[in-house]
Design goal:
It is a single chain. With 121 residues, the protein is mainly α. It is built from six helices and two strands, in the order αααββααα. The two termini are 25 Å apart. Helix 1 runs antiparallel to helix 6, helix 2 crosses helix 5 and helix 2 runs antiparallel to helix 6.
């Protein structure tokens, strides 16, 4: 029976584990993505006083970026309120869609950096 010798197994296992840890925490990429999206969302928010625009924030976790506002009227402005004859003005969604290519690039580069660290020998 032939014998197979794996060269660099320990290094491969260690670098795979390191890449897995990197990919489990993409908060850095999330912060970069938020820095691109939030200004666009603030700029696209309907303005009377500027309070809505100023309230836009991004909450970044290890794997997610969520846009929100602290103002109670942000939701009916964004999604609309047919009962009150308020049309939807999806300024948060519009900002995300406008920056989609940049965000995909940011996360893609983060993934590529992690995967480039995998070495077998």
């Amino acid at each position: 029976m032939p014998v197979v010798e794996v060269v660099g197994r320990e290094r491969l296992a260690a670098t795979l584990a390191a890449a897995a840890r990197d990919l489990d925490d993409l908060a850095g990429a999330g912060r970069d993505a938020a820095a691109r999206i939030v200004p666009r969302a603030r700029g696209g928010a309907p303005r009377l006083t500027g309070a809505l625009a100023g309230s836009v924030r991004a909450d970044v976790t290890r794997v997610e970026v969520a846009l929100s506002s602290t103002l109670t009227y942000a939701r009916p402005v964004h999604f609309g309120s047919p009962r009150r004859n308020v049309p939807a003005r999806p300024f948060l969604t519009d900002a995300i869609l406008a920056r989609e290519a940049a965000v995909v690039d940011i996360y893609g580069r983060a993934v590529d950096r992690s995967l480039s660290k995998i070495k077998g020998t």
